[in-house]
Amino acid sequence: MFLEKDNALSCETYNILTDLRLKIEQRINDKFFGFICSNSLTSLTIDEQESIQIVLVTWYKNALKDLDDHFNFSEDNYFSTIRIFTLENTFIYTDLSMCCEKLSLTKIIDMDEHYNEFCSIKETLNKIIEERKQTHLSNEKKTIYEIWHELFRHLNTPNLLKIFQFIASIPCSNAAAERAFSLCGNAWTDSRNRLSVEHIKAELQLATLIGTIPAESRYFLTRVKGVSNVGSKLQPAFGIRLHGATATCVVLL
User: 45: how many CB neighbours lie within 10 A of its CB?
Assistant: First the structure.
């Protein structure tokens, strides 16, 4: 679920999957299958308990094998290299230069100037890392994206910004693509097979947009009438322009 979040970044992938792997291994070692399940097992005979435990442990082991088969947990994986951008631990310039090499960015990044940038913000980064450790259990903990966004607003580090933009463009998983296929399948049913690609595209864009709009604004969106009136009201309110098929989809919602 962490990888499906809209604010999840690829630099978090390695830590998230490593943490999941460790938790599964811990459950295997402790033979813990959830509080309710563990309590229910106590009401069974010893033979029944052992039989069910074997099945559950096998399921855990299959999950671990699935993780190992589909994700490279070695330090050579570039996901391991770019995890320094999660700002969970201090790092040095060599770690950053290794990121550039792994991502083949050395030709578009001024590495000498990049070193100067790192030296100028090193203390700031270390301070942020320490603050994150202190607020690890706090609900007010900012996302990685929010922290870097705030940094780049106040610091002049164009080379570091290029690296972060590249990392932020790498998808954490295929969840977003699968979600789009699912939405498309729900919208383009057999009973609506005469809709054009433009209509479906517009409807999916609006369905995604509405999820990011406050409830009171959604009320307005789903009840507005008149295609010509929709575009004129939404454009100043939400900074988007709606014409033709897009505007019609607001009425359909």
Answer: 8
Q: Are 24 and 64 in contact (CB under 8 A)?
A: yes
Q: Which two tokens stand for residue 77?
A: 């994986």
pLDDT tens profile 19-30: 999 999 999 999
CB-based contact 53:38 (threshold 8 Å): no
* Rg of the chain over all Cα atoms, to the nearest angstrom: 24
DSSP 198-236: HHHHHHHHHHHHHTTS-HHHHHHHHH---HHHHHHHHHH
Q: Are 4 and 175 in contact (CB under 8 A)?
A: yes
Q: Does position 184 have pLDDT exceeding 80, yes or no?
A: yes
Rounded CA separation 170/76 (Å):
17
